[in-house]
Amino acid sequence: MKGFNETKYKVLSEESIVPEKNIISPAPNQFSHQIVRLCPYYFNKYEQTRPPDGKLKKGAKVTLLVYEGGDYCRVADKRGLYIEVLYKDIAKL
């Protein structure tokens, strides 16, 4: 039809969907830490055999929710993503 642009659709893979258990609602509005460098994150436990589920930008604010010692901790960002990151990639605000 004249005056209309054809829309191109792209079907996303199932891996692109955020698991329901990794969404906190409502999302935090107070934060305890900040990301100190470009930081990969994982929805589940870190596995060297697969790429990260995403990355947080340097300066992103997060709330530290779980840290039991070791290399990784669990945080929530402003979108409500409940994710695992390297503990050394966060610093107290």
UniProtKB/TrEMBL annotation:
It comes from the Bacteria. This is SH3 domain-containing protein.
